Amino acid sequence: MRALSLFTLATLAVPGVLSTGTNDQVGPNLDYGTFQDPSSAVRPRFRYWVNDASMNLSVLVEDVRSIGRAGAGGIELLGYYLYGDSSAYGGGNAAPLQTDWTVYGFGGAPWKEMVDTILEVAKEDKLVIDFANGPNQGAGVPAPYNSDGLLWDLAAYNSTFSSSKGFKGTLPGWGSGRFVAATTGTVKSSTASEAVLYESSLQDVTSKVSSDGSLNIKATSKSEGTESLVFAYYLIHSRYREAPSPTDPSIATAVPQSPITTYSQNGSWVVDHWSAAGAQTVANFWKESILDSEIGQLLREVGNYLWEDSQEYSVATFWTPDLQKKFLSNRGYSINKYIPLVVGSGGTTSNITYVTDESDAGASHIVDYQQTLTELNAEYLDALTEWSNDLGVQFSAQVVYNLPMDMLANVPHVNAPECETLGFSENIDGYRQFSGPANIAGKRVISSEAGAMFGEAYQEPISELLWTFKRSFAGSVNNFIIHGFPNSGNYPNTSWPGFTTFMYEFSAMHGPRQPAFAFYSDFLNWVSRNQFILQTGIPKVDVAFWSKSTTYKSISTSYAPVDLQEAGYTYEYLSPDNFALPEAYVSDATFAPNRQAFKALVVRSNETLTALGVDKLVQYAHAGLPIVFPGGLPSNFSGYAPAAATKAVQSLNSIKSLKNVHLVKADGLADTLDSLNILPRSSVSANGTWYTLWREDAANAKSYIYVYNDATGLPFEEGMKSGTVSFENTGVPFFYDAWSGEVTQISSYTQSKTHTTIPLQLAGNQTVIIGFEKNAKSNVHIQDITIPVLPTTSDSNSLTVLRSFDQKSREITLSTGKKVSLSPMSTKPFTLGSWDLEIESWTPLPDFYDAEGATRTNQTFHIPSLIPWNQISHTLANVSGIGYYTTTFTWPPASSSRVSGAFIDLGSITHTARVMINGHHVPTLDISWARADIGSFLRHGKNTLEVVVSTTLGNVLRTYWDELEISGKLASAVVADPPAEEDYGLIYPVQVIPYRKDKAL
Hints:
Helix content: 10-25%
Distance between the termini: 52 Å
Number of strands: 54
CATH class of the largest domain: Alpha Beta
Signal peptide: 1-19
Radius of gyration: 31 Å
Organism: Penicillium frequentans
Protein name: Secreted protein
Keywords: Signal
InterPro entries: Galactose-bd-like_sf, Ulvan_degrading_GH
CATH architecture of the largest domain: Alpha-Beta Barrel
Mean pLDDT: 95
Strand content: 25-35%
Number of helices: 19
Number of domains: 4
Shape: globular
C-alpha cells in the first residue's frame, strides 16, 4: 500500500469559534476568521446521519473530528430512523429494525448521551453543531397520542339528496371526529372525477346541525331530479409518522422490541405546522427529554441551528383548529361553504374534485385558503424561531416549498432559510425566488441542503457537487449543508461499504469509506472561502420582480428569457407580502436602499395583485422608484375580494402618468431597461453565459463580485469562454483565489470615471471572485485588455508580463501611459507522456459485514498517454480507489528560446487531484481548470511530475451489487441495476506551457 502522506496537504487550522448566537442579520459581531482560513461559523457542514442512538460513541467522536479535519465547520445531526414513515416511496424502502428502538429511539437516554458527546467534541475541536428538531426530517417528535399539537386533517363525508325533497337525518360521518362544518350545494354538472356546483346554491348549514348530528333542510327546488349534496367535515389527527413506533405490527423487526411504557418510546408524530401549538409540542419534548443544564450550556456555546427539513408529509386536507377563525378575520368571509373546493389539498387524492360555476371555477376561494395557510404557517415558524433563540441558537428551516402556500412570504420568518439543490433542480432562477425575501429581510445566511442526486449514492463526483454549489452561489445562496455523511461504524445486517441512507437511491455517502476523503480539504476550503465572501457585507441586486403565488408544490423558472442574464443584470423576486418588511421602502429612487438597493421594480402583466402590494406600489411610484410594467398593467387579483380588486386596478391606473412608471412591450426587457438608463452593476460581454453576484461591504470600503461561467452540459473544450465584465466600481480590483486563498491585485483592466472593465477567460463552470478596495493603492497595470498575455506581477513601480507561445509581436499600454513592445515567444507547449500509474484498489475487508475499513491492493501500469482506467485494462472496469501517476520531462525544452518558467495544465478534473513537482507540493488546483504556475519548482535537466487522483466507489460496487445490504434489506431490491461504469483517472492530456518573463516597467 502506498502512503498517502506524501500527497496530504496540511488542513488549515480552524480559528476558535463558539455559537453564532441569535443575531441572524448581515454584519453580525461574529468571528469570520480570514479569507485564507475561514472560521467554523462560515464553513460548510455535513448532514450527519445516525440511523438510531445505538451508534458506537468512539466512532461517532472520530467521525465528527474527521469532518473538522477535512475542512468542514461542523455537522447537522439527523436521526435517520430508516427514513421515518414506512410508507415513504410507497413502502419500498422499508427495512427491518435492527436494534431496540424502544431504547434507542429519538430523545431516549442513549440519544441524549450521543447529543452530549457530540457537543463536547465540537467544543474541543471548535466546531458548530446543528440539530434536527426531531428524527427523519425534523417535522415531528414523540408526543402523547392525540395531542392538540400534532398534525391535523379533515375527515370529509357527503350524502346526496333530492333538492325537491330536502334533507332530514344525521350528518354523514357524524362522530368520526370533532365537528367542523356542514355545507349544502346543488350539482350543475359532473363527470367521474369532477362535479360543478352552483355557487349560488352553496349554503353554510353548520349552525343548523343539532348536538346529536341531526340536520333538517327544506326543499330548495321544485324540479324533480335536481341533485344536491350535504357535505360534513370533522377534525381528526392525521397520525402521520415521522418515525414509526417500534411495536407497530406493520413494522418488520430483526430483534425484539421492549415494551413501551411512555409516549417518548412510541416513535414520533408530525406536528401541526399551522399553529404555535405544533412548535410548543417540539419545545415541550426537548425540555422534558433532551435539554438539561449541561446540554443547554453546551448548546449555547457550540450550537448553531435547530432545523427542519422540507415538508414531505401528506394528509387529505391541511387544517388546524384556528383556520376558520383566521380565514374569517383575514379574508372577510367564512370558508365553511367553500370547504368542498379545498378538500384533497394535502396531497391525498379525493375521489372527486368539486368546483363552482364561477368564472374562475372557485379558484379565488382556494387562493384565499392557501393564503390563510401561509399566515398560519408563519405563526408556527415564528414560534420555533423564538424558542430556538431562547435556547441561544437560531432556527433554520426549508420554508414552505412542496406545499400550497406562498414560499416568498414566509422565508423571512426563520433565522436561516434553507433551500435545496434537489428540490430546486439546480435552477438559478428558483434560488433567486427564494433569496429575494431573505435578502430584503437582512438574513446573513441563505442555506442549502446540497448534493443530493437521484441514483448517485456512490457515483457523484466532486466536480458535479461543486457544479451544484456554483449555481447556488449565483442565486445568492451562501451556506451549504452537504448531503450527507453516514455514521462510519458498523451496523447490524449492513454490509460494506457501510450504512447507506435511502437504500442507494440518493447521493452522496461522504466520509472515510470514500477514497477521496483524504483530499476533501481541497474543495471544502474552496467552499469555505466562497461562503466567507458571500456572507460578508450586503447583497446588491439590480432588479426586483413582483411575484405572488400561493402554491409552491414545485419550483419552476419564473423569468424564462435570457436577455437580462446576457446583459449582466441581476434580479430577484419578492412577494408583495414582503413589502410589509421594515426595509421595503424607497429612498433616492432606490428600493430597499439598505438591502439589495434595487434600481427598478418589474411587474409583469400576468402577475397577481394584492391590496397591500398595490398600496405599497403606489407609495413607491410616488417616491420616484422606476416601475416597469412589461405587457401592460396586471388585473388578476389574489383571492376573492371584488371591491379590493377594483380598487387595485384603479390605483394602478392612477400612477400610469408618472414619469418613473413605464408601460412597455412584453419582451426585450433588457433593452427596455437600458433605454431607461437603468443599467446593471456588472455589464457582461462574453461568448458564454456568465452570472454575477455582488456583495457590498461598506464598513470596510470593499465590494465583492462572484462570477460564474455556466457551461452546463458542455465538454471541457467547448466550455472555455472569454469576455469582459464592466463593474460599476472604481476601486482597486483584486482576484480572490478561493482555491489557494491568495489575494492578488489585478494587473490588466481599464477604468473610467464610473466603471472598471476586466478581461476574463473562464473554463466551463469555473468561477472567480473579484474584489474592489476603495482605499488601496493601485499598482501599475496593463490597460490593453484585449492583448493575449498570461498573468502578470506588479507593484506600484514595476510590472512583469508572462508571455507564453505567441508568434506575434505585441504592444501594450501601461497605466502610467508608457507603451511597451513585446517580442514573439516561440517556445510551444508540450504534452507529457510515458506515464507510470500505480492504482490502489479499494475492496471490502474479508468480513463483508465489517464496514470500518477496506482492503487495499496495488497494481502498476505503464501507459504511453492518458486514458481512462477502464480503457487501460478490462481488469480496471470495476476498480475504485486512488491512482498515482508519475512521469518525467526535461527542462528547459531542447528547442526553446529564452524561457523563465512554466504552467502545468491538467485540463478538467472529475473528482480530486494533487500535484507535486520534484517533491514540491503545487498549490491546490481549481478542478474546473487544473492549471498552476510551477516555475519556482523547475530545475535544469530531469524533472519529475507526480499526480495523485481519487475516484468514487461507484465502479467497485458493480462487482458486489447483488450482495449489498442495509439494515437487513438488499440494495438491489430497491435499485435493481448496478451503477453505470464511469471513466476514472486523468482524462485530458497534461501539458507544460512554458513562459517568458518580460519586464515592462
